[in-house]
Amino acid sequence: MCDVCVMAAVKSKLQANNLSFSGAGNIPKSEILAASLLSAPICTLAQDISFSSIVDLTHTLTPDFPTFYGDPAFTETDDFTFARDNMNGKTVSYYEHVGTHFDAPLHFSPNGQSIDELPLDKLVCPLAVIDVRVQAEHDPDYRILPEDILRYEKMHGLIPERACVSALSGWSRYVYTERFRGEDSYGVHHFPGFHESTARFLISERQVYGIGIDTMSLDYGPTKDFSIHRTWLGSGRYGIESLTNLEHVPPAGATLIGGAPKFQGGTGGPGRVIAVY
Ligand SMILES: [Zn+2]
Predict the structure, then answer these.
(1) Secondary structure letter of residue 243 according to DSSP
(2) Are 247 and 130 in a shared domain?
(3) Residues 19 and 128 in one domain
(4) Total domains in the fold of the chain
(5) What is the spatial distance between Cα 113 and Cα 33, in angstroms, rounded to a whole number?
(6) Which pairing describes strands 89-94 and 74-80: parallel, antiparallel, or unpaired?
(7) What is the pLDDT of residues 208-246, one digit of tens each?
(8) Which Enzyme Commission number(s) are listed (predicted)?
């Protein structure tokens, strides 16, 4: 969380307790730590954002949206219909990890941040799009390597601080075909994901808090241990899966706006993901 966000969170916490606020210098460290766990209602970014194009990176969520284990994970029931009740209203039910959705650190760590605790300045951030469509077309089990990141940086400059690094494998165009899940006769999936060395590189060598991909998992299809989920989410970072339209975003210079849901204690959830540039 940025200093401004911490200050805002501390201020709102102190005000909620009818205490005075006169700057972070007077605030015990324990208060700052506690407040930093709250989601600040206001967060000031270091740079201005201006844009003329908006791209929807979100699939429409339907009852048929493919899932990792193959079972439907989204249902809807009409509680009110206009014909009968003069209004429309539905009850929907879904697994948190269906459709274009967020993975919070809590998804693969015992006490990581839940989805409602993700700081705003990590959800509105620079977007770097790594194009691995050629590699993925030749190898459905392709894993994005540190070399792919370095090749990107040669062309587009260093991955910016706070960025969400998203892989464009081309898989979103297969979403309602069998190739999206890529399950073979042995029950093994085949679709691209991140390589563990890339996760470690982004954690240790770059200031990156989010990774995204247009397949249904940060881990490649054949994974047995979900090592990317464990490494990346376990480090306190978030992921976004089943993105779409990344090919309509410039590789560098766009801003991601991650409309993550705000369920208390949630491990993730479908949200609206938008890019502006
Ligand atoms: Zn997920």
Answers:
(1) B
(2) yes
(3) no
(4) 2
(5) 13
(6) antiparallel
(7) 999 999 999 999 999 999 999 999 999 999 999 999 999
(8) 3.5.1.9
